[in-house]
Amino acid sequence: THSAMEMSLSNYDNYQKARAVLGWNDRELTATIETKTLPILEEVVKELLGKVVEKPSRAEELSHVLKERIEALNVDIRKARVHITSEIGRLNADYMTKIDRVYNASAGAVEP
């Protein structure tokens, strides 16, 4: 198996040829490609954002990696943003849950 960080849509030209043969419109071509690439992008986003949470100083470096992965997978940037935003929201919710647990366990004592 290949890592999501290494995969690309290497046969994009073949999809373009199939589009002409099968008479697909742009939407049908995009939908076909996205069935393959969006699940891979979701893995990439989770992995990279997890690394940013672990080590925020790597954010800029990892943003370049994310951009490269989006391009290699031929994912529409707007759809990529939706996945990124959703994952950030999930990470924020997890963080807020942890804060809430600490607050409740300390009986509301917020002073250090």
Describe the structure.
The chain is built from 4 helices and no strands. By secondary structure, it is mainly alpha-helical. Helix 1 runs antiparallel to helix 2 (26-54), helix 2 packs antiparallel against helix 3 and helix 2 (26-54) packs parallel to helix 4 (77-105).
In DSSP terms (H or I, runs of 4 or more residues), the helix count works out at 4
Average per-residue pLDDT, rounded, comes to 83
Radius of gyration: 19 Å
> Major β-sheet, in short?
none
The structural class is mainly alpha
Estimated share of beta-strand residues: under 5%
Low-confidence stretches: none
The helix/strand order is: HHHH
Count all strands and give the number: 0
Span between termini: 48 Å
Characterize the overall form.
elongated
Helix percentage range: over 70%
Topology:
Layout: H1 12-22, H2 26-54, H3 59-72, H4 77-105
Helix pairs in contact: 1-2, 2-3, 2-4
Short description:
The chain has four helices and no strands. With 112 residues, the protein is mainly alpha-helical.
Spell out the key features of this protein.
mainly alpha, 0% strand, elongated
